[in-house]
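Notes, p. 3: input format for complexes.
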Amino acid sequence: MAVIETKGLTYTYPSGTKRALEDVSITIERGEFVVLTGPSGCGKTTLCRCFNGLVPHFYGGKLEGNVLVTGLNVHEHSIYELARHVGLVFQNPENQLFALSVEKDVAFGLENLGVPRDEMKKRVDWALQTTDIEDLRERAPHELSGGQQQRVAIASVLAMQPNVMVLDEPTSFLDPLGAQRIFEVINELNKNLGITVVLVEHRLDLAARYADHVIIMDEGRVMLDGKPREIFGLEKTRLMGIGIPKSTRLYQVLEKSGVHLSKVPITSEEATQILKEVLNRD
Ligand SMILES: Nc1ncnc2c1ncn2[C@@H]1O[C@H](COP(=O)(O)OP(=O)(O)O)[C@@H](O)[C@H]1O
Ligand SMILES: [Mg+2]
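Output follows (282 residues plus adenosine-5'-diphosphate):
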């Protein structure tokens, strides 16, 4: 079943001279882990804003076509209603954290929803445990490291128990190891709780292994949409300037030299496996 569906979605910001999104038609199924990527300015953030109604309700502007989120048409439902279903983690966690303690930040959205005290306490404890930041409970968010703040931002959204989590470059301030840890947390939420994930990320070497659906955008349009192995294996993807995983690049180089492989590798483990297979052929 589709959790997010857009049809002919075209959008221009009030101050915009050109369309930020142009005829975007995509379907995201329940439980999928989607990686959304493409060059800077191609419309990734704008598309994420459509998923929770910030576009058009907060930003204004002209939205044509349809966006359905868990069956709700964003034209007809408020940001407040959509927030129950879709949690958005912004690129810069500082913009999302403002309370005096981590615990209060994580509880904030629940207070707004009018969740009863007992239930709120349970959900905050659970969100802190799940993101592995229970020990930071009393700390002030602005004192924390970038990675810790990212976890607090994820916990705040998680406490709302959304069906869909949309994470807009949530690790852009982290080193590869820190990013990897955050992706592991997101992956567990997806696999163990069945939360649908839309992750905007350009570091595909790190993120591709978790994806079961990849969408590549350029200049407001969807250029490629499908399974990771199909998309990354295409020469066209690399020519679009997308930093495909190094393992997949290796596959392309080998194919070009006439070495044919049984599958398109995405992770370094898969590349190693395939190289062993090639070496054993002689
Ligand atoms: N708040 C805004 N007002 C006007 N134009 C915007 C705003 N946010 C983004 N844009 C424009 O919309 C287009 C898509 O931007 P964005 O969605 O931020 O791309 P990405 O996230 O892929 O870098 C760009 O041309 C950008 O300048
Ligand atoms: Mg962006």
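The first strand starts at residue 2 and ends at 12.
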